[in-house]
Write a structure and sequence with these properties.
single chain; Spore Coat Polysaccharide Biosynthesis Protein SpsA, Chain A; 2 domains; 8-stranded mixed beta sheet; two-stranded parallel sheet
């Protein structure tokens, strides 16, 4: 449910600044002043505040400060930064939308540059990057910085659309309004990282990054906590189509094929199970590779099949070579070095080779 208060702005070219808020009462007035000071008068802009019915009355303070070209959306019984941003984009009137936080950590002075880059270079998305040359972060501990970069690496592993970007988790960016509107039905925003949703679901044709300095918060405190971290991980998995779990399921099925092949050799061709285990292990691995490949084709990566089937099969064998080698060496070493059961040796080898196989498959073969 929405309650909207606004001085209307003209629909058309220019930029809308969408700002999701929750308990930012002390920051609102400073934010409005800095926006007015930082954005040149020749830039047509509006401000859209989307507040999740803040207990501290942020929405009420924003209404008190209403000026021409400002909209305040009070969301009742609706919560979440990402959904607030999407709602703000829907309410916006301009061709381009800049998204920023209300805590003044995103300097408004960069908005003009974002718009200039978007217009001059025809970009669908312009990202304010903390991690490219010229960017930076103020006031973060080494642990907080490390956690941020680790979260970025996780996202890049699972989401092919963002791997070339230095800061795909930025909360400070510009997007063409129509790009979001055209893909709104595909969006399922949640958590705090709405940019990931837009990059993965809206398929922007051109994305560029601009360095900026992330500032320390003026008032209030960070909303980062364990719930936010858990929500982030779930969001990444949903955006990836739950591929890691599908890959594990295929791996389990492939393990069954691998071990059943060896077990068949035990009764049908005993030499391949005992004296010629080196050959029997290799045959079992190859059959499981073929089995896994075709399951990935029709299930795990069915939306990312480009090029010929033979080409992907060849790449899968090449990429599997390292994991298969690790698996093979481990199994043979355990079998002959420790005199363990061939089945147990083969199973341990599979566990060792699995993570290597996933990384190569995700990054090298079935790319978006």
């Amino acid at each position: 449910m929405w309650a909207t208060f606004a001085f209307t702005a003209e629909n058309g070219s220019g930029i809308s600044v969408v700002i999701p808020t929750y308990n930012e009462y002390d920051n609102v007035e400073l934010l409005f002043k800095e926006l007015a000071k930082s954005i040149p008068k020749y830039v047509e802009y509006e401000v859209v505040i989307v507040d999740d019915n803040s207990p501290d009355g942020t929405w009420r303070r924003a209404i008190e400060l209403l000026t021409e070209g400002t909209t305040v959306v009070r969301r009742i019984n609706l919560k979440g930064l990402s959904t607030a941003v999407i709602d703000g984009i829907v309410f916006s009137l301009k061709e381009y939308v800049a998204v920023m936080d209300a805590d003044l950590q995103h300097p408004p002075k960069y908005i003009e540059l974002f718009l200039k880059k978007a217009v001059e270079e025809g970009a669908d998305v312009v990202i304010g990057s903390r991690y490219m040359k010229g960017g930076g972060v103020e006031g973060w501990s080494k642990a907080r910085l490390l956690a941020s970069k680790a979260a970025g690496l996780i996202a890049k592993l699972f989401l092919p659309s963002i791997r070339r970007l230095s800061d795909p988790m930025s909360g400070f960016f510009l997007v063409k309004k129509q790009l979001v509107i055209n893909n709104k039905e595909r969006l399922n925003p949640q958590g705090f990282k709405v940019l990931l949703e837009i990059l993965e679901r809206c398929n922007p044709q051109k994305v560029i990054e601009v360095p900026y300095i992330f500032r320390s918060r003026v008032f209030g405190k960070s909303k980062l906590g364990s719930k936010v971290i858990i929500a982030y991980i779930i969001h990444i998995l949903k955006l990836s189509g739950w591929r890691p779990f599908k890959f594990i399921a295929v791996g389990i099925a492939g393990t069954f094929v691998n071990l059943c092949t060896l077990l068949t050799f035990r009764y049908v061709m005993p030499l391949l199970y005992s004296e010629l285990f080196i050959l029997g292990s290799a045959i079992a691995i190859e059959l499981s590779i073929l089995f896994n490949f075709f399951l990935h084709e029709v299930w795990t990566f069915k939306d990312r099949r480009f090029g010929s089937l033979i080409h992907r099969l060849l790449l899968f064998h090449i990429s599997s070579a390292i994991s298969a080698t690790a698996q093979y060496i481990s199994a043979v070493s355990i079998k002959y070095g420790l005199s363990w059961s061939p089945l147990l040796a083969q199973f341990i080898g599979i566990l060792i080779g699995f993570p290597v196989n996933y990384i190569f498959s995700e990054l090298g073969i079935w790319r978006k």
